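Self-study notes.
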Amino acid sequence: MNRTTLLISILSIVCITLFFSCRSVKQTPVVVEEERPPQWVQQYPIDQQYFIGIASAPITPGSAQHFSQARDAALAEIASSITVQIVSESESRIREDNYLFSHTFEERISSFAKQDLEGYELVDSWEGDHHYWVYYRLSKDLYRRQIEERIRIASNLSADLINKSESEIETNKHAQAIRYNLQAYSNISDFIGYGIEANINDENVFLENHIWGMTQDMMRSLRIEFIPSNATGRFLQGLNDQVKIKVLSQYSRSSANRPVPEMPLLLSFERGQGQLVEKVVTGPDGTANLSLSRISSPFRSQIIVAMPDIDAIAGGLGEEPAVADLIDNINLPEARLDIELESVVFCIDYVDRGKYNELIKDASNGRIRSSLSEKGFEFTTQTGKCNYILKFDANLRRGTVIQNIHTAFSDATVLFISDKGVELLSFSVSNVSGADLSFEKAKQKAVQNAVDNLMKRIDNELF
C-alpha cells in the first residue's frame, strides 16, 4: 500500500468516527423568552407634568385598525383627564356665582377637549398578548398655554361685541344689541365653565355671566302691549276692530319708554284657534298690526300672546348648544290680548233630498253634533235662538251586490253660514262607500262614513 492510499484510509476512518460521535450527542433546544410587557403597561405611570393616555386595541390579522383604535382611545383618556381637572377647578371657583352652570357644560368641555387636542406625543408602544398598546402624553404647561391663548382671543372678540351691543342699545336697536350679545356668548362657547374673567366697564366680571345678565336686563326692560288690550270677534271671521302690538324700552340711560323698532315678535293662541300671522316685526314707531283673518274656535273667551321672537333674533346662533342654554334661561316679556267672541249657537239645516231626507238626517245628526260639541260648538233646535247655520247636504246612489253584500256611495257637504246668510266656509267629500246586507243599510253606512270623513277634514283644516 503506497503512502497516498494510506492517508486516504486514515482520513476516512476519522470522518466516520466523527459522524457517529456527533449523532450520539443529545441536542438541547434553544428556549426563546417571550418579551415581557413594559412597566407602563403593568403599572399606570404618574407624572404631574403631563396628561397621560394609555390604551390598547385587539390585533386583527391582516388589518391595521388597531393602531388608530388604540391611539383614539388613549387621546380620549387624555381628554377625560383634562375634563376632570377643568370641572374640579371650575366647580370650586364659580359654581355658586355662575348663573348658567348647567349639567351640559361638562359634556361641552369633554367634546371640546377631544376635538382640539394639540401637541400630544407618543411615548412608547408595545405588541403582546394579541393586543397593541400605546402610551401618549400631553404637557400640562403646553396645553394651558394653548388654551390661555385661545381664551384671550375669544374673550377679546366677545368684549368687542359687548361694546357694539351697548352702542346699539343706546340707539334703541334692541334686536341687534341682543344678537351681538349672543354672538359674544358664541365666541366663548368652547370655554363655558372655565370661569373666564374680563374687565368690562372697569369692573372685573365673569364674562359669561355678564353677557347673560346684560341680555336678561335688555329683555326685562322691554314692555309689550296690545292696543287695545281687549277685543271682540266673530266666529269664522276676524276681530271687529284693528289691534296693534307696541314695544317700548326702559333700558336706555337717556330716556325711558322709547318705541322699539325692528323688533321681531312671535304671536300665538294661548286659548282658541285661528288663522293668525304669527311672525311680525315692529315698524319705526315701535308698532305692528295684528293680523287675524279667521277665528276658527267657537270658544267665547280666547287669548293671544305676544313675545319677542328670540329664534328670529338669534338666527343660526340658536342652534349652538351653549347659546341654546343661554336662550333657555332668558325670561321673555309678553303681553296678552283677551278676545271675547260673539255668541256662537248653531242650527243644523238639511238640504231637501226627498225620500232620503229621514235616512240622511238619522245617519248624520248625532255624529255631527257629538263631533263638533267636543270642539266647543253649541247647538239648538230653536231657529230663533241660533245665529249660525250648519247646512248639511248629501246625495246617495246604489252600488253593486257581491255575494249578498250591498254597496252604496255618498257625496256630502257641510256649509257654515252666518246669521246674515253669508257662506263662511265649506267642506266636501265624494264617493264615500258603505256596505251592508241591504241597500238601505248600505246607504246609511255611506252617509255615516261621509260624515266621519267630513269631521276629520274640519278637524284638520279648521282646527
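Second protein, same conventions, sequence then structure:
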Amino acid sequence: MKDYLAFFQGRVDAEARGNQIEQFINLLHRRRIPLRKPRRTEEGALLFTVSRKDFKRLREPAFKTGTRIRIRKKRGLFMVARPFKKRWGLAVGLALFLGFVFYSSGFIWQIEIIGCEETSATQIRNELQELGLGIGTRRTVKVNPIENRYLTGNDKLSWMSINIRGTTAYVEVQEKDLHPEMEDTTLPTNIYAARDGVILSIMDYGGTRQVQAGEPVAAGDLLVSGDWTDKYGVRHLTHSIATVWAETRHETDFSVPLTEEVRQKTGKSQKKFAISFGKLKIPLYFTQKISYNEYDTVQAEYPLRIASFAFPIRFYVTKAEEVERVTVTRTAEEAKALVLSKLGFYREDVLADVTVRKCETEETLTEEAFALRALFYCEEEIGISMPIEE
C-alpha cells in the first residue's frame, strides 16, 4: 500500500555532499523529515530517497550545514506527468479516450460460444443476432427470453446459458445426446446386397432367406425377402432383419507422375492491416492491389480486450504469400513413397469399417509415372434394407 501512495505522491532520489553530513541528518530528524534507504558511498556522499513534498523542506537544513543537494532521479505519477503540464491536447485526448471507454463499456463487443462440438458456433452467433443478442447490443439486454426463444423448437441444443461479464457475452450450450433412430419394424422391407461378394454367413431374424453361405452374389441381388406366401396362398409382408457377411474385393489405382508442375511458396509475402470500430471497418492501406501474379491469402483477427472487458476495436492482418508454379522431378523411390502414402489414406478412410484379410499390389514404372494397383480381399456386412414397393 505504501508503494502505491509513494507512486501517486512522487519520490525524489537525491545525493548530498558536504563536510557536515551527520549534522544535516540530525536536522532532518528534528524536523521530522524521513529519509528512505539512506546509504553512504565510498566518496562519503549520502544517497537517499525522500517524498516530493519533503524534498522542498531540505533547503534550510542544507543551507545551515553547507550541504549540496543534487537530484539523481524523479519518480511517481506527478513527476511523469509534469512535462506534459501545458500540453492540453494530450489531456483532451485522454479525456476523450476515457469517455469512449466508459461509453463503450455499456455494450457487448464480443460473444464467446462454449460447449458446441457438432453445432457451428458461427451459426449460433447469427441466430442470436436475429434474436437481439449480437455485437453492439447493450449489456442491459434481458437474456432469459433469448435463451427460451432460442431453445424453443431447437433439435440440436438441450440447454443454453448466457452470462454477460464486462463487455463479453459468454454463451454456454449443451448439445442433445442424439440417440440413433429406432428402426420401424412395422415397415415391410427386403434386404439386398450392397456390393458383389461371396456369402460367408447369414443370420436372419425376419423374412425369408434367398441365398445360402458360399453362394456368390452381385450388387442389388435379393438376400432376404419380406414378401412371402404361405401354404394357403396368402401373401404376407414382413420387416426383414438380417446380418449378412460376405467376402468382397476392393480394387483401386494410384499414380504419381515423375515430372509435375506444382504450386510452391517463394517465401515472399505482403501484409495489409485494417482496424474496426464497432461495425465500421477502416483499411490502413491505400491500395488493395497485390504485386504478386499468384498468391494465397490468410487473414487473422485480433480483438482488443483486457480480461472480460472487450473494446469495440479489432485489428485485422491480411497476409498474401506469393506462390509460383515450378516443375518438380521425382525419383522412382520418391514417387513410390507418395503412392504408398495415398494407399495408406485409402485404407484408413474407405476401408475403415471393413476387415482386410489380404492385399495384393502390382507396381508399374514408366517414363512418365509410377503406378500401383491394389486389390483388397475383405470381409464386410453387405446387407442393405429397402422398403417393399407394392
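Instructor comment on the second fold: The domain at 110-175 is CATH 3.10.20.310 (Ubiquitin-like (UB roll)).
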